[in-house]
Design a protein that fits this description.
The protein is mainly β and 370 residues long. The protein has two helices and 30 strands.
């Protein structure tokens, strides 16, 4: 099969954007340190009247989200680090990064495609997790462009992943755009390939609506519009079964994260680490997270079929921004996605991107201040 030059794929991604260049009036840029390869990293701050967001070109990462309480006091509610060196250290647990090429787990670190076996790095026991080890999307430097989308601040990151990187087939041109407007924060993903390849992108932001570094997320209230979930084995890889949610996993009505989590203490996940099969289709409201004691919260909107709830079970007291300690269950993730290990289950929605297609998906956080 003819392989398209990376420049051609990059141009095709650029052509998909209808945004226009803007001034930096609502986007502020500053240095974010030097990475281990000697590459300078940059931090961009996007501002609207009520919300501020920091993003960096290392891993196309969401570094900070500052939202107000009902009195208007801004507080950072996303876990992360003060500079790029933190994101390259053993303290990093995928905080805020763009995750892929395929997020979550691939069982046995391999898959079959077009009669060929593709073997990937086994970085989670015998399984492949979050795109690989050395050149997964969270570990590479992305190109950056400041954009305008309906006069709202936006930053667009692009990366060209070459054929064979981390074991995946095809040259893959990827764009991730962070947009901030009156409704909240939107993350838009695009990708093009010159060869059939699996793609499943998400953001791995950890939330604590009491402020990053607060002790626990157990008092957060969560609602998820999902009647079913994907069953996993002891390695947290789906078996292929899709079953109704159990009482412990049932968030169809708002429930405190800590209400039943102790029932999962002996589970292989050590808490919540489950993929929910979301109801409905298209871009829709799928979940709501609130912390009643602060009045902060957000509605989660996406067009994806799945949502991974992770309750920070493996956070272990390492330090983050400002030397704050990120303790066990002090952050939670709501990862919009296709189902884990979809490439090995024909009954799951396909994640195979065709050369003539453009991968597009959007996830939004619509912040509330009650």
């Amino acid at each position: 099969m003819r392989t398209l030059p990376l420049a051609v794929l990059a141009a095709s991604i650029a052509a998909c954007s209808t945004m226009q260049d803007m001034t930096r009036a609502t986007v502020i840029q500053r240095p974010f340190g030097i990475d281990q390869n000697g590459q300078p990293a940059t931090l961009w701050t996007l501002r609207t009247e009520r919300v501020e967001v920091d993003v960096t070109d290392h891993g196309a990462t969401l570094v900070a989200v500052r939202i107000p309480d009902p009195a208007g006091t801004l507080l950072d509610v996303a876990l992360g680090f003060d500079d790029v060196t933190g994101y390259q250290s053993d303290r990093n647990q995928y905080f805020g990064c763009t995750t892929g090429r395929v997020c979550n787990r691939i069982g046995g670190a391999q898959f079959e495609l077009d009669g060929e076996t593709w073997r990937l790095a086994a970085n989670n026991g015998p399984n492949h997790l979050h795109g690989g080890v050395r050149r997964s999307l969270d570990k590479v430097h992305w190109q950056t462009q400041v954009l305008a989308a309906d006069l709202s601040p936006a930053v667009r990151f692009t990366y060209l992943s070459p054929d064979g990187e981390e074991g995946y087939p095809g040259n893959l041109a990827i764009a991730v755009t962070y947009r901030l407007d009156d409704q909240g924060l939107h993350i838009d993903y695009e990708a093009r390939t010159d060869r059939r390849t699996p793609v499943n992108l998400t953001n791995h932001v950890y939330w604590n609506l009491a402020g990053e570094g607060a002790e626990s997320i157990l008092d957060h209230e969560l609602q998820i519009d999902a009647d079913r979930y994907t069953v996993t084995d002891a390695g947290l890889v789906p078996t292929g079964e899709i079953v109704p949610v159990t009482p412990t996993l049932d968030f169809r009505e708002p429930m405190r994260i800590g209400h039943r989590i102790q029932e999962l203490d002996e589970d292989p996940a050590g808490g919540y680490d489950h993929n929910y099969v979301l109801n409905g289709s298209g871009y829709r409201h799928v979940a709501t997270l609130t912390l009643p004691t602060t009045g902060r919260g957000f509605e989660l909107w996406t067009d994806q079929p799945g949502l991974q709830l992770y309750s920070g079970n493996f956070l272990d007291g390492k330090t983050g921004k400002g030397g704050k300690v990120y303790a066990h269950r002090s952050g939670l993730c709501l990862e919009t996605q296709h189902f884990p290990d979809s490439v090995n289950h024909d009954n799951f929605p396909s994640i195979i991107l065709e050369p003539e297609q453009t991968y597009r998906t959007t996830t939004s956080y619509r912040f509330t201040y009650q």
